[in-house]
């Protein structure tokens, strides 16, 4: 039987007020007040970043009382920071309105020939053309979203894989067809170490680590690559924004170079083309090697790869692999959580 002292202690604990707060956030467009789905909000000084849900909302519970800076970001909009004070035992709501940006693509010019050597690495901030600068800001937002998806909302994928052997004068021969599964909790890029050896069915095989879109935001990748605005070419009949990246001059071993292509209206990634720099410096040397990745939106402004095509020639014979996304599921949490 409980004593009076223990009953009093339990009653006191039960009556204790909640020492934390709840913060509900909504991201909208300043132009028309419409909610912006799947924006991102960083909460400082916690160092926590989350996606809003399909209705533009994000709710965070059990926040310690105090002052926080909310950093809201969305592709196609200027960033906005807001300071909010959280009080113990209170739930409060805040709306963050973002201003849409307009990039005058028609007046952007690609100025002169770029230097052959990549020395000034990283995403450029000041090019002398405000529209080019805005293109790179939107690219950074898109890359940051891809990294957030990979790190905070890991996915499990299933994909169809078909490998074909192509020889001159002969019909294509399918050498492998299967369905494979993997998640994007991954190893990290290391400069000059994209070519390596791995046992494949008992055979020591030379491999090349494929780079995904999120890798472009890796600090080590940016420190070892130069980025340039490449114009607005038409690809498959659609005008896109092209961003080129090149391996730094000091990387003596093969590394990754290529281009990414963004939608001219929404600034999301649609396509990427990768190849190896200095493949002749590999041991043994590698011939031509190319990868084309296409992307699709699985939710507003959230893109995943749709196809990956790899072309690897060995002499006159080419090994071509086509991977196609079948399904994906969130492993830990969905956007908005």
Account of the 3D structure:
The protein is mainly β and 337 residues long. It folds into two domains: 4-98, Immunoglobulins (Immunoglobulin-like); 135-330, outer membrane lipoprotein receptor (LolB), chain A, CATH 2.50.20. It is built from three helices and 19 strands. It has helices at residues 4-14, 130-152, 219-223; strands at 21-29, 40-44, 48-51, 57-63, 66-73, 80-86, 91-98, 155-166, 173-183, 195-200, 203-208, 225-229, 234-235, 238-247, 255-263, 269-277, 290-299, 302-314, 317-330. Strands 8, 9, 12, 13, 14, 15, 16, 17, 18 and 19 form a ten-stranded antiparallel beta sheet that branches. It has a four-stranded antiparallel beta sheet with strand order 3-2-5-6. The longest helix has 23 residues, at 130-152. The two termini are 43 Å apart.
């Amino acid at each position: 039987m409980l004593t009076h002292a223990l009953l009093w202690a339990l009653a006191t604990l039960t009556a204790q007020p909640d020492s934390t707060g709840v913060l509900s956030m909504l991201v909208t467009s300043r132009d028309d007040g419409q909610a912006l789905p799947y924006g991102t909000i960083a909460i400082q000084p916690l160092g926590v970043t989350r996606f809003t849900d399909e209705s533009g909302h994000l709710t965070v519970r059990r926040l310690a009382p105090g002052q926080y800076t909310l950093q809201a970001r969305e592709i196609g909009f200027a960033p906005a920071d807001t300071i909010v004070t959280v009080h113990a035992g209170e739930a409060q709501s805040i709306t963050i309105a973002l201003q849409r940006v307009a990039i005058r693509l028609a007046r952007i010019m690609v100025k002169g020939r770029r230097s052959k050597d990549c020395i000034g690495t990283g995403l450029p901030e000041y090019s002398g053309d405000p529209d080019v600068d805005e293109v790179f800001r939107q690219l950074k937002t898109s890359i940051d979203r891809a990294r957030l998806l990979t790190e905070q909302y890991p996915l499990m994928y299933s994909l169809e894989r078909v490998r074909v052997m192509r020889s001159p004068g002969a019909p294509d021969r399918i050498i492998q067809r299967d369905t494979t599964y993997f998640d994007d909790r991954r190893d990290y890029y290391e400069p000059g170490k994209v070519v390596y050896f791995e046992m494949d069915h008992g055979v020591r095989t030379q491999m090349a680590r494929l780079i995904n879109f999120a890798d472009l935001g890796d600090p080590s990748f940016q420190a070892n690559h130069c980025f340039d605005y490449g114009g607005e070419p038409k690809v498959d009949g659609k005008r896109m924004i092209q961003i080129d990246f090149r391996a730094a001059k000091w990387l003596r071993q093969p590394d990754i170079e290529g281009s990414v292509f963004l939608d001219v209206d929404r600034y999301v990634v649609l396509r990427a083309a990768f190849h190896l720099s200095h493949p002749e410096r590999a041991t043994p040397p590698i011939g031509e090697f190319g990868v084309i990745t296409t992307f699709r939106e699985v939710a507003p402004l959230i893109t995943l790869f749709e196809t990956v095509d790899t072309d690897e020639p060995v002499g006159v014979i080419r090994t071509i692999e086509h991977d196609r996304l079948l399904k994906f599921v969130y492993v830990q949490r969905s956007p908005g959580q």
